[in-house]
């Protein structure tokens, strides 16, 4: 089964700040920026977010648990990263460089959608919704028209489990490579 993204999720553009984001240690809100999407993880740890005083309307551009955050600007396949917000978030707003995708249909899991958007097929689908030549920006309207493959919940869970397993294997390989580099560096340090 396939459905348009706009039929299974709300697409919410981030808040447009009038100027630079000004940190305020006495502020009441936090800003989740595109740089807080690390790999396929949304780093919503408050210690890593900019604290601000927010006087605007507290609308849909504030994060909720299980939202998908998607970077809106990029240069090519792989630069439009998606991640699921895990854990409770309170008073965390996203700027206009990030889109919130909030599933509204019980037939789709947030983790599945994020895994799809991070896949090669998902990235190609996103590229159909971009405008601009050098720094490309995702059009909300065009992305809403994107056709999303929608397998059963059981199949989505299997895909999520497989994606998580592959990510863990990649992390193990990266750790293994670090250890190898440390070994060779230690050898050269001993002989010098």
For this entry, give a set of tags.
192 residues; alpha+beta; Adenine-n6-DNA-methyltransferase TaqI, Chain A, domain 2; 2 domains; 4-stranded antiparallel beta sheet; 3-stranded mixed beta sheet; 14 strands; 22% strand; globular
Describe this structure in words.
The chain has 192 residues and is an alpha+beta fold. It folds into two domains: 2-150, Alpha-Beta Complex (Adenine-n6-DNA-methyltransferase TaqI, Chain A, domain 2); 151-192. It contains five helices and 14 strands. It has helices at residues 5-8, 110-118, 120-127, 140-144, 153-191, and strands spanning 2-4, 9-13, 29-31, 37-38, 41-42, 50-52, 68-71, 73-74, 82-84, 92-93, 98-103, 130-131, 136-138, 147-149. It has a four-stranded antiparallel beta sheet. A three-stranded mixed beta sheet has the order 6-3-10, with no helix packed on it. β12 (130-131) and β13 (136-138) form a beta hairpin. The model has no long low-confidence stretch (mean pLDDT 88).
Number of helices: 5
Biggest pleated-sheet summary? 4 strands, antiparallel
Percentage of β-strand residues: 15-25%
Q: List low-confidence stretches.
A: none
Query: How many structural domains are formed by the residues?
Result: 2
- Give the SSE string: EHEEEEEEEEEEHHEEHEH
Lateral strand order in the biggest sheet: 2-11-7-9
Question: Could you say what the CATH architecture of the largest domain is?
Answer: Alpha-Beta Complex
Structural class: alpha+beta
């Amino acid at each position: 089964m396939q459905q348009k993204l706009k039929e299974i999720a709300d697409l919410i553009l981030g808040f447009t700040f009038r100027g630079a984001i000004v940190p305020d240690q006495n502020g009441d809100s936090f800003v989740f920026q595109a740089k807080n999407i690390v790999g396929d993880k949304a780093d919503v740890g408050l210690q890593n977010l900019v604290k601000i005083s927010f006087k605007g309307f507290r609308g849909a551009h504030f994060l909720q648990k299980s939202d998908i955050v998607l970077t809106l600007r990029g240069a090519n396949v792989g630069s439009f990263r998606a991640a699921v917000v895990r854990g409770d978030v309170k008073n965390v707003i996203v700027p206009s460089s990030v889109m919130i995708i909030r599933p509204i249909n019980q037939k789709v899991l947030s983790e599945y959608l994020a895994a799809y958007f991070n896949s090669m097929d998902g990235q190609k689908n996103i590229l159909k919704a971009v405008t601009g030549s050098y720094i490309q920006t995702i059009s909300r309207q065009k992305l809403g028209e994107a056709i999303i493959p929608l397998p059963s919940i059981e199949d989505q869970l299997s895909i999520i489990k497989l994606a998580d397993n592959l990510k863990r294997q990649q992390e193990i390989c990266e750790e293994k490579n670090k250890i190898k580099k440390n070994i060779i560096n230690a050898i050269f340090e001993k002989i010098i």
